[in-house]
Design brief:
This protein has 126 residues and is an alpha/beta fold. Strands 1, 2, 3, 4, 5 and 6 form a 6-stranded mixed sheet that branches. α1 runs parallel beside α2. The longest helix is centred in the middle third of the chain and has 16 residues. The radius of gyration is 13 Å and the shape is globular.
Length: 126
């Protein structure tokens, strides 16, 4: 696991400026992303998913609402998270980000492929 990741229930922050907050609603987990998801921070997201997922299958939601920047490396990180969740029996959903973030998904055609949802009930861990 990356040295950038702290224990579950904490705010995770990469040196590149990606903050991740974990929320829970019992069996489900939501990771609220803030800042930039790019080449230097994609690995932090992947490590956070592995950390928050329990051994039993659970639903994982990525809340992209706080992202200010997303590049193709960030898209690859989200796709890697999706593949990891599928391989380990975890459900995955994405809450849309701001317009400039969603436009990246729309331009690449991923808005029709990835499982975007409108809401994800969750409360803070801890």
């Amino acid at each position: 696991m990356s040295e950038d990741v702290t224990d579950r229930g904490q705010q995770l922050l990469s040196p590149a400026g990606l903050a991740i907050e974990e929320l829970t609603d019992g069996e489900g987990r939501t990771l609220r992303l803030s800042g930039e998801l790019d080449l230097s921070s994609g690995g932090v997201l992947e490590a956070a998913i592995r950390t928050c997922a329990t051994e039993t299958a659970c639903a994982i939601t990525l809340d992209l609402g706080g992202l200010t920047f997303l590049d193709t490396s960030g898209l690859w990180a989200i796709l890697a998270v999706r593949r990891w969740c599928q391989a380990h029996g975890h459900g995955l959903a994405l809450l849309p980000g701001p317009e400039q973030i969603q436009s990246v998904f729309e331009i690449t055609g991923l808005s029709d492929v990835l499982p975007f949802v409108d809401t994800a009930p969750a409360r803070f861990v801890g």
